[in-house]
């Protein structure tokens, strides 16, 4: 096996701001970057056409490209009907921003897909994703749902009911290992028609956990990234660890991606630890071993 995929890094993992993070990504050997675009300086409302053009030019000058934007609006995802009008509209604006910056992928969490397709939450998620998918498809873009909150089989079943592939998949193997206990290689093959972006992250599962306690759900607390970061570092149910030290079989994961013909980015995500730059440098070198 010889990987030819480009290596990306989530800029926000460095915790030093967008511009410095871009420079750091270049410094650690990444070829592309993923950037959160939901608030602050990267909120679409705060980036004028001129600012977008300047930022894209700056990224180009570093010899980088954007693998995807993160458009995760948190809370209960798209499970609450009353919240969806503004969330869907903002998500569309994030797609517009992505296209202006040279990528056609926006990754997000939509909320856990219920196992029961006759439930009200399932219908609410479906309606939001149908609208988002049609918008993305019309623009030549994708909303990519991150794996982990539900099994690959449940996610595929949901995606198969949508009218387009405008809503697709951002495949994260560690989330599957840590939360649902799914096998990443098998998940890749199940979701092969939908994978447009991937994360490279590792973790261990210490005991079984209800995904709703991690990702939130209607009737549960909303999803909170700080809470998740605390969970992956505290190690009660699972722990995020440096690449190669956890339960992800990277030989199998990378082989599966090759087998389905995936040619997109392998984007490093590091959500915990007090030495993110060191961890990310090691992750870049880890992936390069497969080249």
From TrEMBL:
**Pfam families recorded:** AP_endonuc_2
What residue stretches are annotated with the Xylose isomerase-like TIM barrel domain?
23-289
Instruction: List the molecular function annotations (GO) for this entry.
Output: isomerase activity
Keywords on record: Isomerase
Q: Which InterPro entries match?
A: IolE/XylAMocC-like (IPR050312), Xyl_isomerase-like_sf (IPR036237), Xyl_isomerase-like_TIM-brl (IPR013022)
Name of the protein described by the UniProt record: Xylose isomerase
- Native organism is Paenibacillus xylanivorans
